[in-house]
Each structure stands twice: as C-alpha cells, then as structure tokens.
Amino acid sequence: MTLVFPRVKPLGESSQSRNSIRKDQEYATEVVDYLKLTIYKHEKKKGGINTGGGKKKSGGSIRNTIFLYLPPGLNESYAARYKGVNLGGVGAAALAAAGDIGPDGPGESFAANVSAAADAAKPALGYKMASAALSNVVGKVSPYGFSIDANDLAQLTDGKVFNPYEETLFQSTGFMDHNFKFTMQPKSAADVKVIYDIISELRQAMHPSSDNNKWLTIPDKFEAEIVRYEAKGGKEKLKPKKGDEGAGGFMTALLRFPNKMVLKNMNIDFGDSTAIRTHTPGMENEDFGFVIYNMSLSFQETKYRTREDFLDKI
C-alpha cells in the first residue's frame, strides 16, 4: 500500500477549481517534489549474511512506500575522524625500522634501524629516570609538592624539549545522519486516515517484533530518494529524479541517499490541537484525530560513505 501526503495534484488550466480565475491569470503548477521512503523488511541471505545494509537493491522485500512533501531545512553534514599520535624520536626511528620489514621479512637495513631506535631512546630514557627521581625525592620534603616529567627537566636544564614527531592518522568517516521535519495538516477525513497510516507504518518499521520464544527481530531498513510529480500537457507521472532518463540535477546530486538507513528517532507533536476542535452536527461522538501533526524523523545510514559515492556527473 503506497501512502502519499499531501496527495495534491498540480492544478492546470483545465482545473474546475479555477473556473473563477481569468484565463490570462492562470498559472499551472507543473511539478511537486516528494521525499520517497521505501521500507524494506529485514531478511537474511544464505550463509547468514544480513541484507539491507549496503547499496540500493541489496535485498529484502518491500514492506511499504511512503511519499511525503520535500521538507524545509534540508542539509547534509560531513565529518571525518582523525587522531593525533605522539611518536617522539624513538617512535620515528622505530617506524623507520618497521618500514624495512616486507613480505619476505626484515631487509638489510633492519638491524641498523633497530640500533638507531635504541640510541634515540637513550636521552629520553635518561631524562625520564632523572625526572622521576627528582619528583620522588623533592616531592616528599617540599611543602609545595614537586612533579616534573622528562620534557620539563630537559627544558629546565638544557633549554630544549624533545621533538614530539606528531602524526595525524585517519580513522573513519562515521555514519551519515538525516533529519527531517514535517508539518501535516489534514483537510479531510481521508487525510486523517493517511496521516495515521503513515505514523503507524513508521512506528512499526523502527521497532522489532517478538515471537513466542521472546526473540526480537531486527527492525526494518529504509531507502530514501527525491521524486518529482509532473503534470505537463495533460500527462501526469511520478518519477524518480535519479536513474530515470532525463532526470537528475543539482538537488539530488547534493542531497543524496546512497545507502539503506535505520530510523533512530521519531517524534510526533500535536501542537495545540486539543484546544481547537470542531464537529459536524450529528457527529459529535466521532473522533477525527488532531488538527495538526508535527513529525520529526532521524535516520542513520548503515554503511560508511566513500569517495565513490560522489563520483556522479551532472
């Protein structure tokens, strides 16, 4: 079952709702952009490999498809994690020794590099032993305490410090997050039903189910893409902007969803709906839901992005 909100078709010149507008003042709405969410059931391939965690079309049957208007405030944030490593002179010399080790074992210069690493360790080791001794002796008798390390002692005695030989090492890029906020205001009882179905599907997809043995199943995965509803020349179609002939563009090149995602957080805010209630005469006991639904969704991709995810051309 495909769920669409709002299900508003573009109004062309022949629309009956525009009969009161002069022909020369009509401006047909030709396109509407939607965020398409495809929900995939979590399944396993032979061999116990989980599906639904990588590229699109990677497995898992479709449970449902939801179309929501493209929300405002869209953004993407990229981050890479690095860590600094303090090698020191000893570490730098040790790396030179390690660099001479190949698939066939140590090279000819391995012994010399190990010896160089040992020589590089002597000054640092000497200052370390001296600083520890001074801190121990003076710290016991000084009313102000006393604690210095090898670098402090070298600076106080020789006016210099050890070269830290710091290096920055790449760790990972992390998982990409996507956050969306929607405001849904129903205009009819049919709209209320669609909104309820959308909320129900999302809630079910993000939670595990339980069997009789109290095992929990893995929640469903999501795919996202931007699609465009077009109405030109009396023809209407809903097409993906990416992968369709003639589709694409800068919007989908900048805002992309190359991997399947999990729904981490979902928040529904009904605003002041409880204070604004109207009823049709004779239907006072009917429940038509709330006047407004503010929904926020937080997704996380299930695979690290790499440079290859950004190699498309426009």
- Overall average residue pLDDT: 76
Query: End-to-end span in angstroms?
Result: 33 Å
User: Oligomeric state of the chains?
Assistant: single chain
How many strands appear in the DSSP assignment? 12
- How is the biggest beta sheet arranged? 5 strands, mixed
Q: How large is the radius of gyration?
A: 32 Å
Low-confidence stretches are 12-18, 49-58, 241-247
Structural descriptors:
314 residues, 2 domains, 5-stranded mixed sheet, alpha+beta, single chain, 26% strand, 3-stranded antiparallel sheet, 5 helices
Q: How does this model look, in words?
A:
The chain is 24% helix and 26% strand. With 314 residues, it is α+β, with helices and mostly antiparallel strands. It has two domains: 2-78 and 176-310, no CATH class; 81-171, no CATH class. A five-stranded mixed beta sheet has the order 1-3-2-9-10, with helices on one face. A three-stranded antiparallel beta sheet has the order 8-12-11, with helices on one face. The longest helix is centred in the middle third of the chain and has 32 residues, at 110-141. The protein is elongated. The two termini are 33 Å apart. The relative contact order is 0.18.
Write a brief caption for the model.
By secondary structure, the chain is an alpha+beta fold. The chain folds into two domains: 2-78 and 176-310, no CATH class; 81-171, no CATH class. It is built from five helices and twelve strands.
